[in-house]
Automatic annotation (TrEMBL):
InterPro entries: Ankyrin_rpt (IPR002110), Ankyrin_rpt-contain_sf (IPR036770), Tex14 (IPR039339). SMART domains: ANK. Keywords: ANK repeat, Kinase, Transferase. It holds the Pfam family Ank_2. The lineage of its organism: Eukaryota, Metazoa, Chordata, Craniata, Vertebrata. GO terms for biological process: attachment of spindle microtubules to kinetochore; intercellular bridge organization; male meiotic nuclear division; mitotic sister chromatid separation; mitotic spindle assembly checkpoint signaling. This is Inactive serine/threonine-protein kinase TEX14-like. GO terms for molecular function: kinase activity. ANK repeats lie at residues 55-87, 88-120. One of its GO terms (cellular component) is midbody.
């Protein structure tokens, strides 16, 4: 049975469940329980890291929505897809945006997560972040804008102009003084 993730907020999606027993169900259970040891044990056995629940949600989507950064890190180490489409067209990037965790979103972007993707209702990750609530949403939106601006600056280089190397991670955008001060205020 699907359940509301954040009952006090208007969450754009319900969290699905796995109706069968087996390795995929166990993987989803270990994510919800935050059991990193059991999660890694399952993944080492070769369980599909992108196994889906009844709503087409992967463990990475669920961990991103629940703001489980350590779980997200483990899943990404095993090759979880940050752009996997759930039944409603949303992705783990959408889920991370709603959870307002710049660290999770940064990890997803670093492995190829795409902020431009839309769910079936035409909503982007930014739209999901906007409904997350007045306390967290502005910080996440500012972080997302800095990511977009950074990506645009990389694509608008003149031909022949060398791309300036950054630290190679969107984490460097989290550490920018203006954004860091915003994060500390929260």
């Amino acid at each position: 049975m699907a359940q509301a993730v954040f009952p006090h907020l208007h969450c754009p999606v319900k969290l699905g469940s796995v109706n069968t027993d087996g390795p995929g169900a166990q993987l989803h259970q270990h994510v919800r329980e935050r059991s990193l040891h059991k999660l890694e044990k399952q993944l080492k056995k070769g369980v599909d890291v992108d196994t889906v629940n009844n709503l087409g949600q992967t463990p990475l989507f669920c961990a991103s929505l629940l703001s489980l950064a350590k779980v997200v890190d483990v899943l990404l180490q095993y090759g979880a897809n940050p752009n996997h489409r759930c039944d409603d067209g949303s992705t783990p990037v959408h889920a991370a945006a709603f959870s307002c965790s710049p660290w999770i979103l940064s990890a997803l972007l670093d492995v190829g997560g795409d902020l431009r993707l839309h769910d079936q209702e035409g909503r982007t990750a930014r739209d999901w972040a906007e409904v997350a609530g007045p306390e967290l949403s502005p910080r996440m939106l500012k972080f997302m804008q800095s990511c977009v601006t950074h990506m645009q600056s990389l694509t608008q280089q003149s031909p022949g102009e060398e791309l300036k190397r950054t630290s190679g991670s969107s984490n460097s955008l989290i550490r920018s003084p203006s954004l860091l001060s915003l994060l500390k205020r929260g």
